[in-house]
Amino acid sequence: MNDPTVHRRLTAILAADVVTYSRLMGRDEAGTHAAWKSHRRELIDAKIAEYEGRIVKLTGDGFLAEFPSVVNAVTCAATVQRGMLERNAGVPQRSRIELRMGINLGDVIVEGDDIFGDGVNVAVRLESIATPGGIAVSAAVRDNVGNRLDLRFEDIGEQTLKNIDRPVRAYSIDFPPSLRTIGSDAGAQEPWEIEKPSIAVLPFNNISGDPEQEYFSDGITEDIITDLSKISGLFVVARNTAYTYKGKPVKVQQVSQDLRVSFILEGSVRKVGSRVRVTAQLVEGRSGGHLWADRYDRDLIDIFALQDEITHTIVDHLKVKLLPEEKKVIGRAPTGNFEAYAYYLRGRQFLHWHTKSHYVLAKRMFAMAVELDPLYARAYAGIADCDSFLFLHYNADVSIDGILATSAKALELESGLAEAHASLGLALSLRERHSEAMAEFEQAFALDPNLFEASYFYARACFTQGNLDEAARLFQRAADIKPDDYQALLVLVNILRSLGREQEMKMAAREGVARAERELILRPENSRAAYLGAVGLAALGELDRAKEWAERALAIDPDDRLAKYNVACFYSLEGEADRAIDLLVELLPRATHETKRWVKYDSDLDPIRSHPRFPKVLELLG
């Protein structure tokens, strides 16, 4: 019988411990005890409360706390460590009380006021590998914080932690040098601002009276987000997260609270003929008060200058200092041809819809942009992305060499284009040039930590190399970056099953199916959402619905080879061997080399390998 007092939740856990506490107590028991109580009373407890945390339990020389926000947990830990540095100024090294801290984001069991489980255990073990005065965090924490805080995260690789049955990717938090060397003249140091000014740019409303103009208002919104994201002194909510509010009535204060940002930019776009009218207002999130509002009436050819003006106005109002190189990058127009820009925006809109027909349309739009402006780097990257998705998701007859050449062309024109690095990384991984591919993915991350394609393509590359733990982490990261994407979570389901992580598998399946269901309401022709959704439903034990979705995928596009393969895997796992083999026999004569390799090695097909008809499949493999 289930105990109603026990439940589970996802939470940020902070574990802390005093370094060499026993030695300190042995030297001066009364003094050490009094100093530790003073540090807790005057600094630690107050900061935990300030950042909405809760002390779960105390040990003689440490504590365990939980926070509803990962950012709050990391900010609190960094603030406490800074405070300890200041409090230790002038104290002999051998008498200093120094803390090690570990932070993890994980699922915990809640019983009364206590928490248990793997999420807690990982935090405690991370604390044990932190340096004195330092903080060690899991990859989940690093990915969720992103670039929101002025802290440097150093990747210390996969760690084998005591009593944890899998390696854990860990990062150490590196403090600015002024903090590591803080001394009796600390008051003369520059104040350390942990939290950057933070802003969410909500999708600008299309008030043109023509739904077909939606791509244009979206394009202006996305370009403002892109420009603001290039500013190191500003945290900007990712495009995909901001767009979860598209078309919904929102209260600015609630959005500010949900996204934990201080400022909101909202606006509208009206495009008529060769003129455009843009309104924009910057709102303070907590009070809802307007800091600035303006209306711009311009010729369409002035659209880049308009966007630049809005960006600089925001920077001025938030008192953010631009670095010299940032001034150059922000003021640079992507193309001098407005018509090419319009085709590019339309292509980007189609690309975000993620169906086969829309990939084809998007590629056509990007090609038109390139025809009008042969130096338009982002349009080349768009073509490469379309080809990548057509190849990956629909087994289209696309040249990998062509993707390599198109991505290289984009990078030749604009070396700092994150999506081009991601596309090049994918093409290299398909050519099995893995070390070069990883370098491109890492470069894409460095340029744009919120680029969905970088995480998704990187995850796929790790999966094909058999690095399932890293693939799982990156697919989860991709799903977090893009809250409306169903693909990453439903691919993740099979990986988590292979890793034996049953509970995480069901969580991913539940959320992935919900996202796929929303996608099919918007775009009923999306066969990929249907067959991946069938995988998720099967993982949840909803077999009747899973079969309906599998057959729906085949009905939407009977010639979709990837749909046939995935549905064959589904029937294999569900014990319908003849149906699975029928689909493989249909598929294999026209299958790509990569699909044939999946048939050879995919564990989902293991249940049918001993079937009397499977030799026919092997014969077709060649």
TrEMBL record:
GO molecular function: adenylate cyclase activity
Domain Guanylate cyclase positions: 12-127
Entries under CDD domains matching the protein: CHD
Keyword Magnesium attributed: no
InterPro entries: A/G_cyclase, Adenylyl/Guanylyl_Cyclase_3/4, Nucleotide_cyclase, TPR-like_helical_dom_sf, TPR_rpt
Pfam families: Guanylate_cyc, TPR_19, TPR_8
Keyword Calcium attributed: no
Stored SMART domains: TPR
GO BP annotations, alphabetical order: cAMP biosynthetic process; intracellular signal transduction
Coiled coil ranges: none
SUPFAM superfamilies (alphabetical): Nucleotide cyclase, TPR-like
Superkingdom, natural source: Bacteria
Repeat (TPR) residue spans along the chain: 418-451, 452-485
UniProt KW keywords: TPR repeat
PANTHER family per the UniProt record, alphabetical: ADENYLATE CYCLASE, TERMINAL-DIFFERENTIATION SPECIFIC-RELATED, PH-SENSITIVE ADENYLATE CYCLASE RV1264
The protein's name in its UniProt record: Tetratricopeptide repeat protein
Source species: Rhizobium fredii (Sinorhizobium fredii)
